[in-house]
Amino acid sequence: MNEPNKISGLTRAAGISALHEGYMPGFGNDFETEALPGALPEGMNSPQRCAYGLYGEQLSGTAFTAPSHQNERTWCYRIRPSVKHTGRFSKIDVPYWQSAPNVDPEVISLGQYRWDPVPHSDQSLTWLTGMRTMTTAGDVYTQTGMASHIYLVTASMRDEYFYSADSELLVVPQEGRLRFCTELGVIDLEPREIAILPRGLVYRVELLDGPARGFVCENYGQKFHLPSRGPIGANCMANRRDFKTPVAAFEDRDAKSRVVIKWQGQFHETSIDHSPLDVVAWHGNYAPVKYDLTTYCPIGAVLFDHPDPSIFTVLTAPSGVEGTANIDFVLFRERWMVAENTFRPPWYHKNVMSELMGNIHGQYDAKPQGFAPGGMSLHNMMLPHGPDNEAFEKASFGELRPGKLDDTMSFMFETRFPQHLTRFAAREAPLQDDYIDCWDSLKKRFDGTPEGNWD
Ligand SMILES: [Fe+2]
Hints:
The protein contains two helices and 29 strands. By secondary structure, the protein is mainly beta. The longest helix has 9 residues, at 389-397. The chain is globular and about 85 Å long. Residues 349, 351, 355, 379, 385 line the site of fe (ii) ion.
């Protein structure tokens, strides 16, 4: 065991190869890691007395009796048990972070919507106060559905910690780098990466450089996992080795601290006199993880036609109905377009699922204009949508040589539940009133002849 090292005030396990410094590769592995030598018990979970005087504690992410292939839990060996990391609670207002059901009678959610990037203000905003809920779906009380948020972070959390009992968070940065100092280790995150913060995990979020903006999918339901590849086989799409879970890291720090907890859509605070990030060693399969989206290996049409966009699914969170996701996280990244005699952009469609998209980088092929990096769009349940006229004409008349769709990275949070706009999304965020006009100039090309009118 090498000497531990320090990052952001936390003592972190060392001895990891340079390739994965600070992280362990894999998705859903049974990991083990210790920031001090010998802190992890050998061959058992709960010794009579733990090394270093640590407390053993289990963090369960699934019911004790969940089927073994779905069962997730982590054993933590920590300076204080978690009961010392909360006291009495008081309710606080975090007015821009909303939970489902959040149906505002004055807001119309039926429609096709698109937003410009939400700009930063001169306010000092942390991960908590900078969260802006755009849509909610399902019901936080029954652990179904989701919420989508934009975060605008201009300040680090100081002696402040947070966890959500309601949800796991899928974080999609668009601008600026963030550091998540969690109970189980440190994740540094930048645009074109994503992170998953499990339900119940305590963490603090720091800003690594300038202001940060990005998207969050708050998953109230069953955890995200990798989709089945079916006939595709054992490789491509998101590969397990490209996910990274942090090594153990802890801080032994006495300081008056605030812990904020999201529980049943409400926020509560409690005061303690030390840092709760005190897990010296842990083993298990319930842990935060990050993933570099540029390692996603897309599969696509190699002769004709356009497959369903589910071909680009990175992660899926089940709903209980087989094949019908509570949430799919879908990535549209650069790729080659080679299909012959084919309308290559996404076709026109109505979908029983509700599609919320965000642009991380570049230009999206079905909407060459108006969908800016940092922007979002919503095509709700059974609302028709598809390419605008510019995209339609380009795809209908262009020469179908192999072409690289470059400089593009956008994503979709797709859910089986209709999404409701928050008051913020409808009234305060930069909603494009004219979005629906993007289909105005689509012409009638039917003239009764088999050739149609393509003038
Ligand atoms: Fe769609």
